[in-house]
Design a protein that fits this description.
Blueprint (H helix, E strand, L loop, with lengths): L7 H13 L2 H8 L3 H15 L4 E2 L6 E2 L1 H25 L9 E6 H15 L6 E6 L1 H9 L5 E4 L9 E10 L1 E5 L8 H10 L2 E4 L4 H12 L6 E5 L2 H9 L5 E3 L1 H6 L7 E5 L6 E9 L6 H17 L1 H6 L10
Parallel strand pairs: 3-4, 3-5, 8-9
Antiparallel strand pairs: 1-2, 5-12, 6-12, 7-10, 7-11
Length: about 325
C-alpha cells in the first residue's frame, strides 16, 4: 500500500462515519451523497486490505482495524488543521529543528544555557560555531536559521537584527607587566612585548587591527591564532599582550587568574553582538530567542569575569 491510496478527505469521511455510526448521517454532515461516502469507505478497506466496518449488525460498528484507523485518522486530521498556522502563520513559534550559528567567542557556555531555555518550543537543534564570515556564508546559503554574531547584517534587506549586548575590548597583560595607565604606556608596551593577535581572517582580528590603525600604532606581527583560548593561554604564559572582549574571557575563564585584565586606555573600542534571523519566517520565535539570550547574559554569565575585574560590570550594556 502507498500513501497515495488515501488522502485527508477520505480520512475525514471515515471519521464522520465512525463518530455518527451511519453513512447516511455522515453524508449529511459532509454534504455528500450516501453512495459517495460508501465508495470512500470501500476504497479505504481496499487500500488497507482489511474490513473497517462490521455491516452485519445495526447500527454498524467499527472492527478492531476500524478502531485503529479512527484513532490515527483523528491524530492526522488534528495535525493537518494546525498546518496553516504552524507553517505560514504570523505567530508560529514551533520549529522541528532550529539551526543556530554562534561566533566562537560567545559559544561556550552561552549556547548550552540558551538551549535549556528554548527546548520546550524546539525539539531538535543543530549548532555551528566559528568565525563571523563563515557563519554569514552559511546563513546566506540557508544552512542556518539564527545567528549570534557581531555582524549586524545592516547591509541586507529582509533580515532582522536585534542587539544582544555591547561590550568593550579590554587589555590583557602578563601578571608581571606593569599597569598601563595611558596611551603612551600602551605604545611603549607595543614596542617591548609582542601583541598576541586573532587572525586577520576573523572579524575580531580585523577590529583590533582597525583600532590600532586609528591610533596610528604599527604593531609588528609575531603571533596570530584563530582560537581566543590560545590567545589567552599565550598571555597567561607571559608570551605577550592582547585585546579581547569580555565574552572571550568568559569562554576561557580558566586563564584569568594568570593574567591582568585592565581597561583599554583609549576610549570607544567596543563591539556589538546581534541575534540575526530572516524577516517574517520564524513567527514569534526570534523575539523569544532574543529574550532567552538576554536572560542568559543577565543571569550570572559574567560572574567569573566580574569577580576578577569588577570595574567591567557597568561597561557591558544592551
Amino acid at each position: 500500500m502507498h500513501h497515495r491510496d488515501f488522502d485527508l478527505g477520505s480520512l475525514e469521511v471515515f471519521v464522520a462515519v465512525a463518530e455518527l455510526g451511519s453513512m447516511t448521517r455522515a453524508a449529511g454532515r459532509l454534504g455528500l451523497t450516501q453512495s459517495a461516502v460508501s465508495h470512500v469507505v470501500r476504497q479505504l478497506e481496499t487500500a488497507f486490505s482489511t474490513q473497517l466496518l462490521d455491516r452485519s449488525i445495526r447500527p454498524m460498528a467499527l472492527t478492531a482495524a476500524g478502531q485503529r484507523l479512527w484513532h490515527w485518522s483523528n491524530r492526522i486530521l488534528t495535525d493537518a488543521r494546525q498546518l496553516p498556522a504552524a507553517i505560514g502563520g504570523a505567530d508560529a513559534p514551533f520549529m522541528p529543528e532550529l539551526r543556530i550559528g554562534c561566533i566562537d567567542t560567545l559559544a561556550a557556555p552561552f549556547i548550552p544555557r540558551l538551549l535549556q531555555r528554548l527546548r520546550d518550543n524546539v525539539p531538535s537543534f543543530s549548532i555551528a560555531s566559528g568565525l563571523c564570515g563563515q557563519l554569514r556564508e552559511q546563513f546566506l546559503a540557508r544552512r542556518l536559521d539564527v545567528l549570534f554574531t557581531n555582524d549586524s547584517f545592516d547591509d541586507m534587506d529582509q533580515v532582522d537584527s536585534q542587539r544582544l549586548l555591547i561590550e568593550p575590548f579590554v587589555l590583557l597583560l602578563p601578571r608581571s607587566c606593569p599597569e598601563i595607565a595611558d596611551e603612551a604606556a600602551l605604545r611603549a608596551l607595543s614596542r617591548t612585548l609582542p601583541l598576541i593577535r586573532s587572525t586577520t581572517d576573523s572579524a575580531l582580528g580585523r577590529l583590533v587591527d582597525q583600532h590600532l590603525r586609528r591610533l596610528g600604532m604599527e604593531v609588528p606581527r609575531s603571533f596570530a591564532f584563530d582560537a581566543t583560548d590560545t590567545v589567552m593561554a599565550m598571555v597567561a604564559e607571559e608570551m605577550g599582550w592582547s585585546l579581547l572582549p569580555p565574552t572571550a574571557l568568559v569562554k576561557s575563564r580558566q586563564h584569568l587568574s594568570h593574567m591582568r585584565v585592565m581597561p583599554l586606555p583609549t576610549s570607544g573600542f567596543r563591539r556589538s553582538i546581534h541575534v540575526v534571523t530572516r524577516r517574517g519566517e520564524l513567527g514569534s520565535l526570534p523575539a523569544g530567542i532574543h529574550k532567552a539570550g538576554r536572560a542568559v547574559i543577565q543571569q550570572g554569565y559574567f560572574t567569573d569575569v566580574f569577580a576578577n575585574s569588577p570595574w567591567l560590570k557597568p561597561l557591558i550594556g544592551r
